[in-house]
Amino acid sequence: MADTTLMDKLVSLCKRRGFVFQSSEIYGGLGSVWDYGPLGVALKKNVKDRWWNAMVQGRDDIEGLDAAILMHPKVWEASGHVAGFTDPLVDCRQCKNRFRADDPRIKGTPGQPDAQCPVCGTRGSLTEARLFNLMFKTFMGPVEESAAVVYLRPETAQGIYVNYLNVLQSSRQRVPFGIAQIGKAFRNEITPGNFIFRTREFEQMEMQFFVQPGTDAEWFERWREWRMEWHRSLGLDPAKLQWHQHTGSELAHYARAAFDIQYQFPFGWQEIEGIHNRGDFDLGRHQEYSGKKLEYFDQAQNQRYLPFIVETSAGADRVTLTLLVDAYREEQVEGETRVVLGLLPSLAPIKAGVFPLVKKDGMPEVATTLYHDLRKQFACFYDESGAIGRRYRRMDEAGTPFGITVDGETLSAGTVTVRHRDTMQQERVGMDRVAEYVKERL
Ligand code: GAP
């Protein structure tokens, strides 16, 4: 299967089965903004729950936080985003399109007569590169003046830094400890694309770990290992995960060291999570700009210091896309193509489909009762329309690991057929045991 075709097929499956829709589609769509449908929202929630369980619930040394999207504008001066969160862009005076200055489709040097617009083909129409800030700006209160400017946060991390003392004092944690948050972030990306890989509105799952200076390199290595292990635990093909180290100019202004976890997408190796050793840059800057002391008093060492920060920053949408890409497969079965999403059962949006074999002989009634009982325990879907084979195929495309069919034997012997998504094998299980049977395999 050609790689571009795979992305096209995935986008189409996501729409057909209700994972992801284009935002404002009936108005022609909004560039690089996507909506999650019934199955997509369930899948992304499973990703976020799994992250939260690993990072907050399962650990004594990390606290949760949900900071507001809107923050004091000085936060973004202190963080460096007002001055430095920019991309160099060029405009075409002819067709009014805008491009990143390093867009490989541009021929010649922007600003020079030889430069050619990649869209309308006009020569000499491209402006010189200008820096363009990626933050979305809006106004707070009724007046649109510069004093009222606020930004939609481009990362969740800053909400953690400015709350670090609040959390430290209220939770009675001691350094080393972490704060984790899941939330929306916004970037006016100029070259967005590849479906939900790079979007203008997305969700981050970020954790900032505060450590004593001098212990940061050791913690950085630990977090690298734990985060890679987490991605492997999602059932991703390990051969498609790799590290990418940031060196030289790639290294962000705040970072002493940075590694990306990359996944091999159909469009190449790309970042799904960044692990950064941020030193004391963030707390130092917020201390300077707010005028508030943000030092930590380490009683054990009788020492005051600004903690260093090790950050783990993953995109919930990117991880969701990674799962979809990794799980998508096509098989030939009896001369027909079977499309399957081989998601880990614990991540699948629906755990079991419940079907009456036919719409008569009391089977729908028994199947409906079973469905109502099972849905109290895990996500289920009831379907009685069409041939049973087609109903199985629909569930295969949704990534549902189990199909439970009520048939003639159910009525006589009290058993149902459980059909397995991956092997398509079927076995008979007592109706009174089927809930446990599924739960054991989740
Ligand atoms: N606080 C550090 C930070 O925000 P980043 O590398 O800019 O670092 C971290 O972003 C993660 O957020 C990325 O690895 C990616 O998963 C996700 N992300 C960033 N920009 C995104 C976008 N435009 N669309 C979707 N996800 C994005």
Percentage of residues in DSSP E strands: 25-35%
Main sheet?
Answer: 7 strands, mixed
Structural shape: globular
In the sheet with the most strands, the strands line up as 3-9-10-16-13-12-11
The percent of residues in helical segments reads: 25-40%
Q: So how many helices?
A: 13
Quaternary: single chain
**Separation, N- and C-terminal Cα atoms:** 30 Å
Calculate Rg over CA atoms.
26 Å
Q: Could you name the ranges where pLDDT drops below 50 across 5 or more consecutive residues? A: none
Which structural category fits the helices and strands? alpha+beta
Mean pLDDT: 96
Describe this entry's structure for a reader.
- The chain has 442 residues and is α+β, with helices and mostly antiparallel strands.
- Helices cover 30% and strands 29% of the residues.
- It has helices spanning 3-17, 38-57, 73-78, 81-84, 157-161, 164-171, 216-232, 281-290, 316-327, 363-374, 388-398, 408-413, 434-440; strands at 20-22, 34-36, 62-65, 86-91, 98-100, 130-133, 136-139, 149-152, 177-186, 201-211, 241-245, 257-265, 268-279, 296-298, 303-305, 308-315, 328-333, 336-341, 352-356, 380-382, 402-406, 415-420, 426-430.
- The chain has a seven-stranded mixed β-sheet, with helices on both faces. Strands 20-19-21-22-23 form a five-stranded mixed β-sheet, with helices on both faces. It has a three-stranded antiparallel β-sheet with strand order 5-4-6.
- Strand 4 (86-91) and strand 5 (98-100) form a beta hairpin.
- Helix 2 (38-57) crosses helix 9 (316-327).
- The longest helix is centred in the N-terminal third of the chain and has 20 residues, at 38-57.
- The mean pLDDT is 96.
- Residues 155, 157, 187, 189, 198-199, 202, 204, 206, 271-274, 311, 313-315, 317-318 line the site of glycyl-adenosine-5'-phosphate.
- Glycyl-adenosine-5'-phosphate is lined by residues 155, 157, 187, 189, 198-199, 202, 204, 206, 271-274, 311, 313-315, 317-318.
